[in-house]
């Protein structure tokens, strides 16, 4: 018995879908870069927030560096899917921490959805993977 895997046929996204996806991506990227750089530079609000969430002050730069690497991988078109997966993992950790300290976790959930929505709108292969049966 032989198993064959058929390649994903990707439809080209419409101009409006592509533009919307790019706008959402830029907004997400700017926020992620701002957050990562603020942590790396040990900006006081980032340090206080990290301590409030239960991490030591010495972890702020490490967390910022991890986020920066994930974001750079997301920015590069050829590795954007890997970057989205890594950012989803990062945000999953944020969700767990927020729940642990009794804070609302809606922001990282919505942000992860936006990261993937931007890829869905601008990448036909992603759209083919998540075919919801309708035309978007």
TrEMBL record:
Its main location: membrane. The chain crosses the membrane at residues 19-38, 58-76, 81-99, 105-121. It comes from the Bacteria. InterPro entries: DoxX. Keywords: Membrane, Transmembrane, Transmembrane helix. GO terms for cellular component: membrane. This is DoxX family protein. Pfam families: DoxX_2. It is found in: Membrane. The keyword Aminoacyl-tRNA synthetase does not apply. It is a multi-pass membrane protein. The keyword Membrane applies.
